[in-house]
Design brief:
Elements lengths: L5 H12 L2 H4 L5 H4 L2 H4 L4 H18 L14 H5 L28 E4 L5 E4 L1
Antiparallel strand pairs: 1-2
Helix pairs in contact: 1-5
Length: 121
């Protein structure tokens, strides 16, 4: 199996092995992935199963054939790290200084040839 699906497969195996379906009810992991028992799995395992299926389909998708599947980083999620939030969170860049437009700045006035006063900054 190509390396693009190995991480998500390992995460799915780990999730299945720690699920109630395998530990307490003593079902086989393959049985837990089938419809009657699939609803008893935690949401995270169901999401990993769906993601693993999409990853396998992406390996034979002709539109992704040259670029390949996007790497799926699930190890950070397992360690509890959160990815940086881009929207509706804290700023990703340094804060911008807000000005009112009335700051003290050096303003020079000049009188033109026509006798009018002009501001030069």
């Amino acid at each position: 199996m190509p390396s693009s699906c190995k991480d998500i497969r390992a995460a799915l195996v780990e999730c299945l092995q720690s699920s109630e379906c395998v530990l307490i009810q003593r079902h086989q992991p393959t049985d837990c992935l089938r419809p009657p028992l699939l609803e008893t799995l935690p949401t995270r395992c169901q999401q990993l199963k769906k993601g693993f299926g999409e990853c396998k389909r992406g390996m034979i998708d002709m539109r992704k054939r040259f670029r390949g599947n996007q790497p799926i980083a699930v190890s950070k999620e397992l360690e509890g790290e959160k990815p940086p939030q881009l929207y509706a969170g804290g700023p990703t860049a340094s804060p911008v200084k807000v000005t009112s437009g009335h700051e003290d700045e050096k303003v020079e006035t000049m009188i033109g040839l026509d006798g009018e006063r002009r501001i030069v900054r």
